[in-house]
Design goal:
Elements: E1 2-7, H1 25-33, E2 37-40, H2 46-56, E3 62-64, E4 69-71, H3 73-76, E5 85-87, H4 94-104, H5 107-110, E6 113-115, H6 121-128, H7 132-139, E7 144-149, H8 153-165, E8 168-172, E9 177-181, H9 189-198, E10 203-209, H10 215-220, E11 223-226, E12 244-246, H11 253-265
Parallel strand pairs: 1-2, 1-10, 10-11, 11-12
Antiparallel strand pairs: 3-4, 4-5, 6-7, 7-9, 8-9
Amino acid sequence: MTVVIITDLDGSLLSHSTFSFKQIHNDILELLDSGIHIVPASSKTKIEMNVFCSELGRELPFVYENGAGIQNIRSLMPDSKLPNTLLSEKAVAVDNLWQVWVEKVPNELKKQCLFVHEMDMKQQINLFGLKGERLENALNREFSFCFKFVGNRAELRLLKHILDTNNLSFHQGGRVLTLSGKHNKSDFCELIQFNSRKHGSSSFLVGVGDSENDVELLEACDVSCIIPRPHKPLLSLSIPLERTIIAGSIAPLGWLEAVRKALAINNIQKVANYG
């Protein structure tokens, strides 16, 4: 059986406030060494994801910008003939995104959207909790724009409708919304499952997340782990409770707790040392 943990980062594996995973660093390495695959799936940019892999000390396959693409495919599928970086067919480059935004969204709605790249540096730092090179990496987006919405719910529903009719969408993350094509973090789950079947093996997908932009991913996995949020209600899913694990603590320790429970469901022997 191929076991794959597909996980959000900020607020799920990484601390929501400090972005640290030092407390569970060695545990993650032990999971990887046991043969379990870990695929980070985040709204983070490709550069940010590569920095995370560098800090972990392993080259992981990862999904970036909410499913715009997947990189390091051969880390998961060594004999694959696919390119090592695969772009979603739904991904829209930022220049084209902005053109649709300018042409299709009414001015009254535009006023309710505060784009991060138009903010001053102090506002960006306060919003993201990042500075210096880390902030630059977060802003270096190829297929999405981050923004804060300051309008009401009716206006947000209207914005969603307008974007939908133009093959665009937005995702609610832990700190901001992101404007992008109609891709999401679950888009590469079928590829992962197909690769397992191709090699005569079943797959067991564990999803981990904490925010609304994780919902599609969590509902596509065999078992879903929900990590509590410090200042928001627990994420709600529309899947059976027996497929859901709720961590008792926030990230990063909540990630390890939930993953251990998820792996124990299938009596996966390789995690016996983590219980």
